[in-house]
């Protein structure tokens, strides 16, 4: 775990995250200036969208950097030479990436908070943004979303022979898992323009729901954007689904890696 953490620090990844956070503040702040009303809401919405994309890409990048490269360059033999089970190495890498993602999320959360504060200096909107427990819940959903993507990337890396496969598969997984729930909701609505396509695509979407978690449901930003109450029965279901999926992916990838033959 500490090796992965130190490798991420030495790779100057968190410095890059700080630069990304600065760019994210600038983009979100400029977006809020184009809004005649509710600049804080616009700034927070754009900032959270950017943070979710950045953290997911960082998770995939760190899996490749700290695991995929070792497999590609055959330096994995040095790590496996220690007299410990292979899954120690695997889970250690996951925990190290988790710490890096946690640090990156803290930087981005602080940057977004500062940006929303600056957006409200010149215009006091009627319904202000209230930070607190709701903000922590939003970031809890973001972290579970990103960790699920990270676990899937590790699963792909555990048996892949080229680094391109885990990267491409993880990006596809991210897009599908974050979007299919919203698409299903739109198609299930009889009043929507896509209702006539429901008979063709809904069976496929329901099949995807059995094998892919609905990561889009972990986006809780409406709690602070519009003050909507959190439905705990639904939220706990999606949170539990993501945790179960991530744990299952980690267990399967650990077993595959433990039995993998290296040449």
From TrEMBL:
Parts of the chain that traverse the membrane: 12-30, 50-67, 88-116, 136-155, 167-187, 235-257
Domain of life of the source: Bacteria
Keyword Iron (UniProt): no
Keywords: Membrane, Transmembrane, Transmembrane helix
PANTHER family named in the record: ABC TRANSPORTER PERMEASE, SLL1107 PROTEIN
Designated name of the protein: ABC transporter permease subunit
Organism of origin: Chitinimonas lacunae
């Amino acid at each position: 775990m500490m090796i992965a953490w130190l490798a991420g620090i030495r790779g100057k990844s968190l410095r890059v995250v700080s630069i990304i956070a600065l760019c994210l503040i600038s983009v979100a702040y400029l977006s809020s200036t184009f809004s005649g009303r509710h600049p804080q809401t616009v700034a927070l919405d754009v900032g959270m969208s950017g943070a979710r994309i950045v953290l997911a890409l960082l998770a995939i990048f760190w899996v490749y950097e700290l695991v995929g490269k070792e497999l590609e360059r055959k330096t994995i033999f040095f790590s496996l030479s220690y007299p410990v089970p292979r899954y120690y190495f695997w889970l250690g890498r996951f925990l190290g990436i988790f710490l890096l993602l946690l640090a990156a999320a803290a930087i981005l959360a602080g940057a977004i908070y500062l940006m929303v504060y600056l957006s409200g200096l010149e215009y006091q909107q009627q319904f202000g943004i209230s930070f607190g427990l709701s903000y922590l819940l939003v970031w809890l959903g973001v972290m579970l979303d990103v960790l699920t993507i990270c676990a899937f990337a590790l699963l792909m890396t555990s048996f892949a022979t080229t680094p391109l496969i885990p990267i491409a598969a993880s990006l596809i997984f991210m897009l599908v898992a974050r979007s299919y729930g919203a698409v299903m909701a739109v198609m299930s609505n009889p009043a929507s323009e896509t209702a006539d396509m429901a008979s063709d695509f809904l069976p496929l979407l329901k099949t995807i729901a059995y094998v892919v978690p609905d990561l889009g449901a972990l986006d809780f930003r409406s709690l602070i954007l519009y003050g909507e109450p959190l439905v705990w029965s639904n939220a706990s279901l999606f949170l539990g689904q993501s945790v179960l999926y991530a744990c299952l992916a980690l267990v399967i990838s650990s077993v595959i890696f433990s039995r993998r033959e290296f040449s």
